[in-house]
Structures
1.
Amino acid sequence: MDHKLVLWGVGTSRTIRAHWALHELDLPYESRPILPRSGETKTPEYTALNARQKIPLLMDGDFRIGESAAIVAYLAETYSTPDHVLIPREKSSQAKWLEWCFFVVAELDSTSLYVMRRHGTNNGLAHIYGEAPAVVSKAAEYFREQLRHVDVALTDGRTYLMGDQFTTADIILTTCLTWAIDYGVGICDSALPYLERTRARPAYQRAAAANTPKKPAATC
């Protein structure tokens, strides 16, 4: 690897995706553990790197890319090896992989869980975007409806979304399922053993540790 990898961001369901992909691919990288809505994404230094002032952000040499799903796809396509691969190589399988990635990001994350986060009062952002209990309830209902597609996939005997191969689609789905549990939405029964499998992966354990914000040192 010729370029130095630097990942900005910790502490969210989206930042862990990038940490996880880096650990699955066994890539050395430097972590810049800034947090969202802490003022750290709005500094002149970070804004110069990412005008959207969002995390995560991956720097690969002079190349920069944001959006967690795009980051893990870039890493998978750029750095997968025969021993560490996160993307199908056969074209039709790659198309199905993309379909899963787009589905999870669009229908489970952005349309459902993030709507709940924006307008919910428990661990949410209602103080910024406004409290909307009816919207939160409908978003949770929509999440459960869309999850039936995951349930169908996981009840046909496959280990991961793409069969026996673990891919970035599993990274994104696992974070959404974990997020849903934290929000009390409830997930399908088939997702429980699936979560046990994905979160038992050593790379996930290392990524979870890397994504945990460090507590400030105690002062005397």
2.
Amino acid sequence: MGDRLLVLMRHGQSEWNLKNLFTGWKDPDITARGVEEAKRAGKLLKEKGFTFDAVFTSELTRAKRTLALMLEELGQTTIPVTNNLALNERDYGDLSGLNKDEARVKWGEEQVHAWRRSYDIAPPGGESLRDTLARTLPYYVQEILPGVLRGERTLVVAHGNSLRALIMVLEKLSPEAILARELATGAPIVYRFNADSTVASKTDLVA
């Protein structure tokens, strides 16, 4: 057990990130670059002296594989992993599997931009960022935060939008500000907490 520590990280580059496809709940693996990003993040955390008591990820392969590679580098492969679909990426519905340029041709630039960069407009059959927050935040509050506040050093490997939902709350960002926030793949974000669950400090770890 240690201080009140939470590390959030977006999975390594996926095959569909590379192809510029809407991924959502589809389940491609990570690329060779994604493998390197995951290993580099694990090495970086180890070099900085991090160890973890609790680890969480989604039900999707790209996040689970990223976490497994990180834990190998950390020498913590025996730590129990909690998988939950509450941490899954935003469901892009009918956009899933489409190239982003093809989607713009089909629905128009403005409509696709609204789906990607608005807080509460969902694509057909999918989720808005608000919908994603509505499933991710309760899980965080009930299952992740209590351990952090007890001093369990916690690592969460998830996805761009499920992490945006958490970061919006942790950093008290407006919907507009969080939508403008780009999350790099394979880049750990370190939060330390006060006893009242507010964030005491935030650090972006870079090699």
